[in-house]
Amino acid sequence: MSVAHQGKITSISNRVIHVNILSVSACSTCSAKRICNLSEMKNKQIHIPEPLQHTFQTGDNVLVEIEESNGIQAVILSYILPAVILFASIIGAILFSFSETMSALIGIGCTAIYFGFIYLLRKKINKKFIFSIRKEDT
Length: 138
Prior knowledge:
single chain, elongated, five-stranded antiparallel β-sheet, alpha+beta
């Protein structure tokens, strides 16, 4: 099973297809979105290695897919692990009799170090998350 998003090819260069995806939250279609300010619409740019046999052109409407298991891994790496590190380091610091302020700073520091490692390993991590692309059925 895979997760798919609609997108539009903005360019193709150096064997990489650049796709623009409009990410829309559930409340963006609500008629009260101007009042509550919770609506969220963001343009996201995804870079996909060009398939060997392709007929894609700039401006094509496409579906960008990723396996659901890869999506779950991405959520774990970007949301769950940082939250666990943050809370564990704060609780650990409090147990070692640090003040609440110092414990919070230690938690933020540990989380920042985690994201630093993620940044340093981004090329290796990117190889694990494989996107596929196909033309959207019209």
